[in-house]
């Protein structure tokens, strides 16, 4: 797809410069005080396998390759995304990528979710033996000899976090894992985990519509030198600029059950996206670029994960790296989308109970 075709395929798109075919991206950020330096944007790969309806396999592989070519180094996945499908997809993308890009790539893997053949969710398993079992399968599916950042997807309430983190620390000592991460953990759990082993980063939802981490979680991470990999930076498309009130979701798209996508909640949230659009257009950027740039502006210790499933959406996201927001820009954005303005919880009630970060 050419740059012109990309632009014409996107409503409200801006003109994008092609990403470099070789070389390392200009912008890097440290992943906490104990982790590696990574590209300022990471690629979240979940939607290439699960939860957002059907995905185009060829386009997914091309998108991973385009991300690596552009200098994105952090690829985020979970062993339960499509029951291993996503890890196999990333493994294939890495095998078929140029050697230089493959060597720069870093894998971030979540584990622990228990699922049935019908897609049902049964909770999370953070027992030490389970941690090592999950890791063995992930290494095989990814086709790598180590995982760069390994984390349980949700804190297992039946297993002390110290035991789960301790098992990952043993994998680090054995060379199978490089760094330990957390996901959707609350401040107290973060402190306990950090007392057991060095924690590189916390993966958690953070966007203009989801700013809860600013109260306790983000200050705790900064105190302890723990980085943030922020997912949901476009709030599952709500503030991506490509959704409207007539958007239809596939039967296997989990947003059908999302509280923020229901009835009056959807109307309210899309009104916020429209307000953000006005700010974005005044600055010659797309809505998505503005939302991503806002997350980037929150601190050098925050790395947004963009869930692009196509080269076009990836190109748009990369454009956010060229945006520098002034204090006046940030104020205008936050006036358009004030903290706490989102209508509806970020997950259905059955999933909210698994979020240690919300306790």
Properties at a glance:
single chain; 359 residues; alpha/beta; TIM Barrel; eight-stranded parallel barrel; two-stranded antiparallel sheet; disordered N terminus
Describe the structure.
The protein is of the alpha/beta class. It has a single domain, classed as Alpha-Beta Barrel (TIM Barrel), CATH 3.20.20. It is 38% helix and 15% strand. The chain has helices at residues 3-9, 57-70, 85-95, 99-104, 128-142, 161-174, 187-196, 217-224, 263-282, 287-297, 311-318, 327-336, 349-352, and strands at residues 28-30, 37-39, 42-44, 74-78, 106-111, 113-115, 121-124, 147-152, 177-183, 201-205, 227-231, 302-306.
Q: Quick recap of the structure?
A:
The protein is of the alpha/beta class.
Strand line-up across the major sheet? 3-4-5-8-9-10-11-12
- Would you report the number of β strands? 12
Global geometry: globular
- Radius of gyration, in Å, reads 19 Å
Kindly report how far apart the N and C termini lie: 45 Å
How many helices? The count is 13
CATH topology: TIM Barrel
Pick out the low-confidence regions.
1-25
Oligomeric state? single chain
Order of helices and strands: HEEEHEHHEEEHEHEHEHEHHEHHH
Second CATH tier, the architecture = Alpha-Beta Barrel
Number of domains: 1
CATH top level is Alpha Beta
- Mean pLDDT across the residues is 91
Give the arrangement of secondary structure elements.
Elements: H1 3-9, E1 28-30, E2 37-39, E3 42-44, H2 57-70, E4 74-78, H3 85-95, H4 99-104, E5 106-111, E6 113-115, E7 121-124, H5 128-142, E8 147-152, H6 161-174, E9 177-183, H7 187-196, E10 201-205, H8 217-224, E11 227-231, H9 263-282, H10 287-297, E12 302-306, H11 311-318, H12 327-336, H13 349-352
Parallel strand pairs: 3-4, 3-12, 4-5, 5-8, 8-9, 9-10, 10-11, 11-12
Antiparallel strand pairs: 1-2, 6-7
Helix pairs in contact: 1-11, 2-3, 5-6, 6-7, 7-8, 9-10, 9-12
């Amino acid at each position: 797809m050419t740059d012109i075709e990309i632009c014409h395929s996107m409503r409200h798109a801006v003109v994008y410069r092609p990403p470099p075919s070789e070389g390392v991206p200009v912008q890097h950020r440290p992943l906490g005080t104990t982790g590696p330096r990574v590209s300022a944007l990471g690629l979240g790969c979940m939607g290439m396998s699960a939860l957002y309806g059907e995905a185009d396999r060829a386009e997914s592989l091309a998108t991973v390759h385009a991300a690596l070519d552009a200098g994105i180094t952090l690829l985020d996945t979970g062993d339960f995304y499509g029951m291993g499908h996503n890890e196999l997809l990333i493994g294939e993308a890495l095998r078929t990528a140029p050697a230089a890009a493959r060597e720069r790539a870093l894998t971030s893997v979540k584990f622990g979710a228990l699922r049935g053949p019908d897609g049902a969710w049964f909770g999370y398993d953070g027992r030490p033996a389970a941690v090592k079992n999950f890791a063995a399968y992930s290494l095989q599916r990814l086709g790598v000899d180590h995982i760069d950042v390994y984390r349980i997807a949700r804190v297992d309430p039946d297993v002390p976090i110290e035991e789960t983190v301790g098992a990952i620390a043993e994998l680090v000592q054995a060379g199978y894992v490089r760094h330990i991460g957390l996901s959707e953990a609350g401040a107290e759990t973060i402190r306990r985990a950090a007392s057991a082993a060095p924690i590189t980063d916390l993966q958690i939802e953070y966007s203009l519509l989801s700013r809860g981490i600013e109260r306790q979680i983000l200050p705790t991470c900064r105190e302890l030198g723990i980085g943030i990999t922020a997912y949901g930076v476009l709030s599952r498309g709500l503030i991506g600029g490509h959704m409207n009130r007539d958007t239809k979701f596939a039967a296997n798209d989990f947003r059908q059950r999302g509280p923020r996508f229901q009835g009056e909640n959807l109307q309210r949230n899309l009104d916020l996206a429209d307000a953000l659009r006005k700010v974005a257009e005044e600055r010659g950027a797309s809505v998505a670029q503005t939302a991503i740039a806002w997350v980037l502006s929150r601190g050098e210790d925050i790395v947004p994960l963009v869930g692009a499933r196509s080269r076009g959406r990836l190109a748009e996201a990369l454009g956010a790296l060229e945006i520098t927001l002034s204090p006046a820009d940030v104020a205008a954005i936050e006036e358009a989308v004030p903290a706490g303005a989102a209508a509806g919880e970020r997950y259905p009630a059955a999933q909210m109970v698994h979020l240690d970060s919300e306790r």
